[in-house]
Amino acid sequence: MKLQHLFDSHAHYEDALFGEDRHRILAGLPDQGVEWVLNCCSDLGVAPLVVALTEQYDFVYGSVGVHPHWVLETPEDYLDQLERLARSPKVVALGEMGFDYFFDEPRDLQERIFRGQMDLAQQLKLPVIIHDREAHEDTYRVLEEYRLPGVVHRFSGNVEGLRRVLDWGMYVSFNGDITWPEYNETALKVLAATPMERLLIETDAPYMPPKVLEGQLCDSAMLPHIVEVIAQVKGLDPQEVCDISAKNAREIYGIN
Length: 256
Known about the structure:
This protein is an alpha/beta fold. It has 9 helices and 8 strands.
């Protein structure tokens, strides 16, 4: 059965890895059952392309923000630039933003830029898209302080962390990680504990394809492999997973 109403809640079609294939892939997604894509921004350098993609494709929406990997390249007027970009009609969130302790970007600078974006989201009344890699406690500390609506994407914390995030009214999303036995032991426990009304699906394209497609460039047409695992864990029909997760994404991002 071909799945319908798929909402990829986090993808990066602005990424240079897509190259000249970007538009060919995007144009083909509706025929694969992908009805909505949230193209998430990683830094100011690619933000204009993110906005351009929302203007070119009816089913693509966008966010603008600064990923923690890019804090050293972020100009002082980044908040003014983000505010202007956020006025674009189909920009529906700020992000992705947060902490990443896997690499060596200064943690104090990560926090300053993270908090600046949280302040802006509060001002603009936009949901936030949170990146948390090996920085759970610091991420939770900031989220608890602000308690803004949004999504912790590619959630990698444990069940206790999940409960805290849910208590603050946020959503969590799952990607191809849950199909990889090397990575999914904790993720499947968290998935089982996540109420369906707070669950989103994503690819994080072009990264982390499902295990069965290892080595390929990830895109939104691979969502059914993620849906299949969620359906098995939750005891639901795969199309029901698509419908519920799409409803959730449309609610958090304000897409009618």
